[in-house]
Each structure stands twice: as structure tokens, then as C-alpha cells.
Design a protein that fits this description.
2 domains; 2 strands; 11 helices; DNA-binding transcription factor activity (chains A, B); GntR_C (chains A, B); homodimer; DNA-binding (chains A, B); DNA-binding; elongated; two-stranded antiparallel sheet; mainly alpha; Four Helix Bundle (Hemerythrin (Met), subunit A)
Chain lengths: 258, 258
Amino acid sequence: MALPNEERVMGQRTPENVAARLERLILDGVFRPGQLLPSERRLCERLKVSRASLREGLRILRSKQIIETRQGHGSTVASLLPMHQQSPLMHLFNDHPRTLFDLLEVRALLEGESAFLAAKRGTSMDRVLITRRYREMADYAEHSESIDVERLARLDHAFHLAVSQASHNPVLVHTLQSLTDLLLSSVFASVKHLYHRSGPREMINRQHARLHDAVVAGEAEQARHVALEHLTSITELLRELEAESERLERSAMRMEPW
Amino acid sequence: MALPNEERVMGQRTPENVAARLERLILDGVFRPGQLLPSERRLCERLKVSRASLREGLRILRSKQIIETRQGHGSTVASLLPMHQQSPLMHLFNDHPRTLFDLLEVRALLEGESAFLAAKRGTSMDRVLITRRYREMADYAEHSESIDVERLARLDHAFHLAVSQASHNPVLVHTLQSLTDLLLSSVFASVKHLYHRSGPREMINRQHARLHDAVVAGEAEQARHVALEHLTSITELLRELEAESERLERSAMRMEPW
DNA sequence: GACTAATTACTGGTCTGACCATTGCACCAC
DNA sequence: GTGGTGCAATGGTCAGACCAGTAATTAGTC
């Protein structure tokens, strides 16, 4: 039961642990992309595991495409780290921030259609659920003094999800979902900013109210119109935010040129 | 260099090969989902490899989530085979064939918007490319006596891709692309049927011509309208095809009840 | 007889040390 | 310089041993 101290801090001698420790070393920059790792024999000594366990650990990293191995040569850290492998579209965001607005454009289209279909096809149960989600969100936004932005974002998301689900088109729900995930993972900080300011927040609240009313009333064209307006507003707000941060960056650059 | 004959047919004694052979056995139904595999020792004998290599092979299957392993118990074939893991949406198609029309609904929306934007934003270079793709497709459809359906489908796809790319919205292009891939992977056989019949083929040709003309002329609203009409036609044709095959199935059932 | 505890015969997990196969480099003859 | 040759390093595979969980059987108890 009692292990030598050094081994305890090193963790268990299991392949999973080996892979995790090596991944940590790579993420910390000890081993850099393109670089040749130490030989298996050396890594065994350094990580205090047998070669069999080490090799299974390397196998894990290889299957995650974190390293590449050539017999007689060694293992090299792959140049594309998994951070960039989250989604095919992720590349775009890293290369061209402008893609954000392309995404919003597509999302507006889908969000508008889902509101339209929800108003048209939504059952009474759908409407009850939509209203409940709306009330949860609106109550929290109005009554809470100190707002937890993350929670508000979740409630917001739940409301829109309920609307899209009332469209009774799972493909639409899924596509919208994946685009929203992509959006939030890339600009969650910016979205948080929107909630923090009372001006935008109130505008968003009003639009949500109108969207809810139109969908529940079954006014399909109106629902689509409101949804499009909603997304247009958000796009506008994000544009302003971007321009603002650009101004800040530029002034910071003047202060500290490189 | 000279291996015993038996080993040569078994293949190399490498973990990758072990994984491939086991996967083959699972796909062939020798080992069924939920079933417990033979113990590592037995598999070693049967596959004529050392336990170290076998374990690395099992590690590969585990990382692909084809098997699950518990110490002291054994390795079981996962109940969800990788065939169903191609895409989150794939589940839907397997469970509810009706999803096909949901997909076509979303695709019509995106295709319409992409035609609209292409007509609006397309550069002269875009138009040249769209025309070229259109001509390649139309020439092949008209002049070829015996039509290679797969080739025609590729040309068709290339034409629509050129249109969507002229929208200058990479997110739209990507989303449309993934939906199209999903569609073709699930109902490629049905799509082939459409091309085989001269009636539907000529209708599709006419719609392509009108779509091309509207986009190149920059008539955005008209382009959207034609694209929507195009997708509506295809949906209708697929519906008819489905009803037809259902009739066939039902009559077959009467012949051979079970 | 019914329940609990110990036994035991499995299972996967790890370790060791050896040998094989490929690579790349230093060396050497031409 | 050029082209072979050998050697030392690498990853790949192997065999056998022991550790560590699991589960069914058995022995013991009430």
C-alpha cells in the first residue's frame, strides 16, 4: 500500500497515466510539435514504467494522432495538436475571425425557419414547454439583481432549443445545435459581454418576448420575422463589440510597440 | 524470409493486423455485440501472436470504442458498433427513415439561401466557374447515350457546390456539404434511380438551366425560388419512389409471409 | 436449509529481459 | 566525391513470470 514518495506523485503506472503525463508534457511545451521524443528505453526510466506499459501509452497517443512513430527512427510530436482538431470548421475560425458573421448569417436563416415551423407545427404540449422555458429565462433576467451570466446563457439556449424542437424537424434541431455550440465555443466571452450590459440585455429580452408570443400564437410569418430581427440585432451588437476591442488593441499597440 | 504457410495467410503479427482481424471477426458476426471475447491468453494462441502484441491490438479496438475491457472479467464487444457512429445524425436515419424528408427540408432552405447569395454576391469569376460546371453537367447529360449515373451525380454535385461557393459564406458551404454527404450516404441508391428515368432527369435538367441562368444574371430572388422549386421536385420524386417501393414490399410480404 | 466467509481458478494488468527488423550515420575502399 | 559496409541506435515482437481484480465454488456457521 505504501509507495515511495516519488512514485506517488508520479501517479499510477498505467498506460492511461503514461499517455496523460506525456500529453501534459507536450501541452506544457517540454516536447514541441515536430520534435523527436526520447527513445522508448529512456522514457521508461524517466516515467518509471516497463516498456510494455509505455508502449501501450504511446499507442494511446498515436490513436489520438498526437504522436507519429517510425521504426528505427523514433516518435515525433505531430505538428497538428488536437486543440485544432475539434471540428472541421474550427480551422476557419482560427484563420479568419470574420467567419463568425458568416456563421451568424446561416444561423439566422435556420433560426428563422425553426421559429416559422414551430409556430406552424407546434403542438399544445410544445407551446406549454416553450412558455415554461421562456418564463424561467424571463423571471431570472428580471428578478435577479446579481446575474450569473453563464446561467442566463443556459436558460437562453434552453428557450431557443425548445422553439427549434417544436419545429419537429430533428435535422434542423441538430444542425442548429451544432452551429450554436460552435458559436459559443469560439465567442462565449463576447456573448457574456452582451449579457453584462443592461441596454443590449433589455433589447434581447423584448425580442424573446415577441418571439415567444408569435410562436405560441401560431403566427408563423411573424415568428420568422422576429427571429431574424433577433439574430440581426445580436450580429450588430457583436460587430460593435469587435470594433470596440479593435480600437482598444490599436491603442495598446501604440503604447507597447513590437 | 520464408514463413510457414499458415502464418502467411494469417498476415503479419503486428498489433494493427491483430486489431483488423478481430474487427473482421466482429463484423462477420463471429463475435456479436455484448458478447464476451475469449481471454487474452486464448486469443494469443488462436491469432499466433504474443500477449504484448495482442494487448496493443486490443488497445486499438478499445480506442475505437469497439470493445470494452474490465480487469478480472474480460473484453466485451461494444453494443454500438462503429457503423452507427459515423455521424450523430446517422442514428436518426437508422431509427426513423422519415428523417430523410426533414433533411431535404433543411437542405432546401440552405440551398435556396446559397442560390440567393450567389446571385447577389457572386463575382464574375464565380459566374464563369458556375457556367463551366453547368456546361460540363449539361453536355454530359445531353450528349451521352449510355449515362454513367455516378459520374452524372458527381457533375451535379460539383455544379451545386460551385453555386454555394459563390455565396462567399464558408459556413454555409460547409453545412450544406455535410448535409449533402449525409443524404448521399443514406439514399444514394434512390438518387441513382432518379437519374435512370428520363422523365425526372429532364425535369431536373430544366431546373438546373433555370437556376444557372438566374444566378449568373444576378436575379437573387428568382434564384432562390428556382432552387426551392428544384428541391421540392426532388422531394416529391423521392416520395413517389418511397411509396412505390412500399407497394412492392407489401406485395412481396403477401407472397412470402413470416 | 439459508446465509456468510474463505478458497480457488479464472480474468486482465504489469514487469523483465531477450531477440528481431529497420534506420541512419560513420567509416572506409575505390 | 562516391558508393558500399558495419555498427549502434531505434522501434517491434516475444516468452514467461508475477500482481490484481472477479466470480463461482466451497466450507463454515447459524
